[in-house]
Amino acid sequence: MYLNINRKTVMFMELLVPAGDINSFYAALNNGADAIYLSGKMFGARSYAKNFTIDELKTVLKLGKIYGVKIYVTMNTLVKESEVEDFLKEVEFLYSLGVDAILMQDFGMISLCLEKYPNLEIHASTQVNSSSYETIKLLYEMGVKRVVLPREMSINEIKKIDIPIEIEVFIHGALCVSYSGNCLFSSMLGGRSGNRGECVGSCRLPYKLYKDKTLIDEGYLLSMKELNTSLDIKKLPSNVTSLKIEGRMKSPSYVGFITKYYRKILDNEELSTKDLEDLKSMFYRGFTKGHLFNDSDLINKKSPNHLGSHLGKVIDVNDERIRIELDRPLLQGDGIRFKESNKGMIVNFLYDLKDNLINKGNPKQIVEVDNKVKLTSLDEVRKTTDKSLEITDFTITRKVPINIEVKAKVGEVFTLSFSDLSHTVTYTGNVVEKSINNPISKERLISQLEKLGNTPFISKRISIDMDEDIFIRIGDLNIARRTLSERLIGERLNDYKEPIINEVTFDKINTKEIIDLDNYGEVERNPFYIKDVLKDKSIVSNLFRPTTNVIASYHLNVFNSYTAYYLYKLGYKGITLSVELNSLELKNLIESIRKRFGNIPIVIKTKGYVEVMLIKGNILNLDKDTSYTLVNVKNDKFKTYFDGRCTHINSSYSINLDEKELEFDNVYFVGENRGN
Prior knowledge:
26% strand, TIM Barrel, 21% helix, seven-stranded antiparallel sheet, 39 strands, alpha/beta, Elongation Factor Tu (Ef-tu), domain 3, eight-stranded parallel barrel
């Protein structure tokens, strides 16, 4: 039970935990989350999670206020023109319920919502790819409250961010190999956009790497290990506001465990050896400290799967049974995996050496399990699920500590106050009388006041100022206690800003300027300081306020007319539309831009290969400026190179759009060497 009493927290950073469904929310709530991020059924960047219904969103937003846990709702997908109305309806629904913040990726929606809803807190998702100082500065100047930094950012870079914006960093969970918001692999190969929450996990598939026609490497070459910074949390710089755990696709048991695990660290409790092993049982692809701590050990090319924690070894095997010598406990119902064969199973039946069914095997014990996976070799055994860590009871056990004050003086009115530090509610009773036969003792008074039962509260401190030999009816005391509990809940529920909704007006653009694309050069992707590499006329992929002639590349993910408008108003001379849109969507989008905002210069990539991944560093160990080829199991070929700083992977095919279908005034087409 998480009580939040007498915490010895050594770091004043928010512990931010994922919830993919209502039970995961309860697991996070009970185990010490300071804030929880989750999604409704639309726009949440995790289409394959259960996510939350309208009624569930109402429930969690109410519980968040009662228990003092902030609720952030993710609406961090790119928004198509036809979806803008539904997007804004969802924002207004959450806004009216007092959501603590909404995470967004779509630049047009961020810009519009900042104008339309001036006291709505907006966080810029990691999908915005705020990898430069200038981007973060722009977001702050716009009014964005918090920026979720890319996982590629290092501690030294974070320390240099002297902008008074809240900073959120990932500290645990799955890692994208590409810069977030810049990965088009899933979209270009399978038609499912990672920017729209439909990523198929192309990076978790096997590849072969060729230099010319020579095979030089193979395996799961793009599959990142799990981020785990738990032993280095105290090294994070002081400008970090929030510590974010990835995992909206994870189970409630995982969410509960990982929340409790990091709560221990932040409350300065020591981790046990069991904690560390249980962490691997929950999910483990191998651990890395990531780019955050400049760890170069990032990839597990042997397996993209959950490997679990060491359990024991197979000492004998036949067609019927597998005999295992245990180093750690094994329960009936646990999941196990055999490391080398990569075969896994649930232990439905567990036997001792006398062929008796047992429900638990202990360290050093030899046990047998049914050979359901047709194992044929001796192997290491690893535990992938632990029945003892499973959460099945989702009753709320979290309590909010309160201070209670009593004044009971003869001849004066009885007063009782409850305070949660932010709110104080007071009950005034009858005039206190001197007792004739049955005085109430201080101990009895305390006992009755501590009976907070099923309320969200627990007594942290009781201060009593009372005369001796006074009479107070126990029934009156109970009524006062219940009344104050209900009133304090009400005060906490009403603790949010009233929504403000503005009418937003837009300028009509009627530029006559002609863009000569031949005069524009591409700028190095994702430098921390854009100004150090910016040319006079450039095609750029980072978001910032231009001070020179620049065109926004397709990596700025322009999906709707609002994004095109706001980028143009920032100073971009031309706006490249997203390569994830098909010809019909592009045509409709241009028509919407013209109708709503006027003659904004539009650029469309109609020919050539698309960069599907931009990866920090040289994870494939490539020679600089040398052409390589990645090949998947379907024999799709992806041209790959390392520029000395980042690894670039291009699409396996060249796009070829019919330019005649997209001929509008002030629309420009680019091919092989344009648009980054």
